[in-house]
Design brief:
binds 2-acetamido-2-deoxy-beta-D-glucopyranose, single chain, 29% strand, 4 helices, 5-stranded antiparallel sheet
Amino acid sequence: MKGVQFLVAFVLLALASKLVSASDPGPLQDFCVAINDTKDGVFVNGKFCKDPKLATAKDFFLPGLNIPGNTSNQVGSMVTPANVQQIPGLNTLGISLVRIDYAPYGGLNPPHTHPRATEILVVVEGTLSVGFVTSNTDNRLFTKVLYPGDVFVFPEGMIHFQFNIGSTNAVAFAALSSQNPGVITIANAVFGSDPAINPDVLAKAFQLDQNIVKQLQSRFWWDNN
Ligand SMILES: *[C@@H]1O[C@H](CO)[C@@H](O)[C@H](O)[C@H]1NC(C)=O
Ligand SMILES: *[C@@H]1O[C@H](CO)[C@@H](O)[C@H](O)[C@H]1NC(C)=O
């Protein structure tokens, strides 16, 4: 009987630790600057790292987040990322940043999700209507109008958006709890997939006429990041 209890406790602990390790792993050393080839590198945590002796301040640096993104596009927004792709020194550190610009009167960062990160956003300029929706079966919407200095959190994996409801440009910065948060823009992934999803699937899922689905699938789905 003791053995069974031990086994149950062990399985529960194993399940719990699986949940806990679902985000980026904690660093195993001071840093691990990412490199593409293994020459002069060491292998840690599943990634190639630059030999720490060869790391420089440049590996941890990115200029230019003062420059507004170009919002002349069909959604009226632009995301400028600062993740491990741009800053190799972020490798293994589980954090990154974006700047988001929104055009006046309706610039939209369309509904999307980050499969690997929680996001914390601060508005620097303008007025944003933001929100996220919880998972099934509640699908509860949490929404708020944000002004400069306001901060809002989008929990990991939740579908969320930001919409400029003001008459001026809006600017926000957001930190994400992953070096490589990933983005799934819902409309693009569903209606702009390559190859296209069978229209019967989408007609039924979205309860739409098949012609409307085909029309949606023929659109160009702009990717703002
Ligand atoms: C690695 O390769 C990618 C794709 O070729 C490139 O964009 C990136 O800058 C490279 N990163 C480093 C650290 O050399
Ligand atoms: C912004 O993007 C539009 C559309 O691609 C382009 O025509 C325009 O020249 C760009 N503006 C700037 C300042 O780069």
